[in-house]
Amino acid sequence: MKFKILIFLLIFNSCTVNYTKQENRTAYNTRGFAYIYNTSDYENKIIKDKMNNEILQISHYALKSGTLVKLINPKTKDTIVLKNYRQIKFPEFYKILITKPVAERINLNKDLPYVEVLEIKKNKSFVAEKAKIYNEEKKISNKAPVASVEISNISKNKIKTTKLRGEKIFILIASFYSSDVADFLKKRIAKDIPAFDIRKLKTKKINNKKINLISGPYKAINLVKNDYILLKKFGFEELEIYIYE
Fold it and tell me: Is the pLDDT of residue 158 over 90?
């Protein structure tokens, strides 16, 4: 068994950084779904700490409190830069925890809260005024309750599948320099994750030096989440999610 694991690790040395952690950490940058905070999630212990759903707040469990984070809505190009409020634990399928006013500020689709998350590292050339940092004191009225699809509760409640209009979601599992390695991993997933639908796995040639192993397309967020969790349990450190119309 140890021998098989060793071979697997050696093969993965040939793939790009998408799967492995870097010792010299660069600024955090990823795309995926935002978790829109709801008070009931804290009460039900899905979220480990409270947030104020009447003001602009964000949280990421891996970034230090006070870290500047830029959120981008890829569809509308709306952006906002905020300080990481606190390191709060939330379901790992999501990339960032945000309050409802943040979702409204960048015009996120509540049924498909897809965002790009970019850590901003402070340096001499950084101008805070241009970053448009909105402090916690700048309150926004919260006239209506949060109306988002609670896909975090699918393990406890009856699954409500929300089909998307036009959009197709893909999971980028890993990138390789060799199609043989990508095919090898595809077979490993089929063998070691029997619950995974092998028909969803595809290899996509990006250029002569890059082959992507992807899963999809998905037309419902819950289906993406289920496969994402299966792949994480298999051992992938970082999985990217992409949306195409």
Answer: no
pLDDT grade, residue 25 (50/70/90)? low
Q: Are residues 176 and 80 in the same domain?
A: no
The last residue of a domain, from among 111, 132, 153: 153
The pLDDT of residue 7 is above 50: no
| Per-residue pLDDT tens over the stretch 93-108 | 999 999 999 999 999 9
Q: How far apart are CA 202 and CA 215, in angstroms?
A: 6
Weakest mean pLDDT among 7-21, 35-49, 68-82, 184-198? 7-21
Specify the number of domains making up the chain: 2
Residues 122, 168, single domain; the answer is no
- Checking if the pLDDT of 77 tops 90, the result is yes
CB burial of residue 31 (10 Å; 0-12, 13-18, 19+):
middle
